[in-house]
């Protein structure tokens, strides 16, 4: 039985007061939730304040990105130790906005996943196809490559520290959600791939989140799919009411 895992990716939103207000509101609303793992991923500069605001509650904190080197001359980058130091449990690696806006490659994403695991952070490996790739019937190929390369060198002992987030790029921030069937098809494909790369036992245990215009109104039907184990939520995670409603739908 896989415990549901719902994470909010705040992206480049909120200010310091707004971050604390949202985090404190969620901590209060969700204080009794224990059947769902919950995380919020604020911008780097608000991680410490958000960690303080959710401290003692079931809400954990994640970062939206990281760098794979431990320290040194990497201007503008943030290390895993720094993330742990400000209270992070999770880190998103390879979000499509980093792949397609910033230009991150599968090789870089893989280095981040491995460095995250090495440091004790739990990576959320985000994968997903572009609209033109889906229309060209390349969804499975693209996602398979991203998962396989993203996990290269991750051992059988470590793989269950990883959550995979399937986020079709055409569904992100567009209001166009993948249908539950579309999400299920790709999730099942990913789980089959994990069985090939690792084992059936690992495949049965790894958690695969869906992301892309997830909101209170579609949470139940997405989460009802057998291979959808959680959600990575953008826009709807910016409001206490919406995000907590999504979690309570599943709890
Ligand atoms: O990219 C996402 C989460 O990482 C999804 O964003 P939206 O929920 O705003 O579509």
UniProtKB/TrEMBL annotation:
<dbReference type="InterPro" id="IPR022896">
    <property type="entry name" value="TrioseP_Isoase_bac/euk"/>
</dbReference>
<comment type="similarity">
    <text>Belongs to the triosephosphate isomerase family.</text>
</comment>
<dbReference type="InterPro" id="IPR020861">
    <property type="entry name" value="Triosephosphate_isomerase_AS"/>
</dbReference>
<comment type="pathway">
    <text>Carbohydrate biosynthesis; gluconeogenesis.</text>
</comment>
<comment type="pathway">
    <text>Carbohydrate degradation; glycolysis; D-glyceraldehyde 3-phosphate from glycerone phosphate: step 1/1.</text>
</comment>
<dbReference type="GO" id="GO:0005829">
    <property type="term" value="C:cytosol"/>
</dbReference>
<keyword id="KW-0324">Glycolysis</keyword>
<dbReference type="GO" id="GO:0006096">
    <property type="term" value="P:glycolytic process"/>
</dbReference>
<dbReference type="Pfam" id="PF00121">
    <property type="entry name" value="TIM"/>
</dbReference>
<dbReference type="GO" id="GO:0006094">
    <property type="term" value="P:gluconeogenesis"/>
</dbReference>
<dbReference type="GO" id="GO:0046166">
    <property type="term" value="P:glyceraldehyde-3-phosphate biosynthetic process"/>
</dbReference>
<protein>
    <recommendedName>
        <fullName>Triosephosphate isomerase</fullName>
        <ecNumber>5.3.1.1</ecNumber>
    </recommendedName>
</protein>
<feature type="active site" description="Proton acceptor">
    <location>
        <position position="167"/>
    </location>
</feature>
<keyword id="KW-0963">Cytoplasm</keyword>
<feature type="binding site">
    <location>
        <begin position="234"/>
        <end position="235"/>
    </location>
    <ligand>
        <name>substrate</name>
    </ligand>
</feature>
<keyword id="KW-0312">Gluconeogenesis</keyword>
<feature type="binding site">
    <location>
        <begin position="9"/>
        <end position="11"/>
    </location>
    <ligand>
        <name>substrate</name>
    </ligand>
</feature>
<comment type="subunit">
    <text>Homodimer.</text>
</comment>
<feature type="binding site">
    <location>
        <position position="173"/>
    </location>
    <ligand>
        <name>substrate</name>
    </ligand>
</feature>
<feature type="active site" description="Electrophile">
    <location>
        <position position="95"/>
    </location>
</feature>
<comment type="function">
    <text>Involved in the gluconeogenesis. Catalyzes stereospecifically the conversion of dihydroxyacetone phosphate (DHAP) to D-glyceraldehyde-3-phosphate (G3P).</text>
</comment>
<dbReference type="InterPro" id="IPR000652">
    <property type="entry name" value="Triosephosphate_isomerase"/>
</dbReference>
<dbReference type="InterPro" id="IPR035990">
    <property type="entry name" value="TIM_sf"/>
</dbReference>
<feature type="binding site">
    <location>
        <position position="213"/>
    </location>
    <ligand>
        <name>substrate</name>
    </ligand>
</feature>
<keyword id="KW-0413">Isomerase</keyword>
<dbReference type="GO" id="GO:0004807">
    <property type="term" value="F:triose-phosphate isomerase activity"/>
</dbReference>
<dbReference type="GO" id="GO:0019563">
    <property type="term" value="P:glycerol catabolic process"/>
</dbReference>
<dbReference type="InterPro" id="IPR013785">
    <property type="entry name" value="Aldolase_TIM"/>
</dbReference>
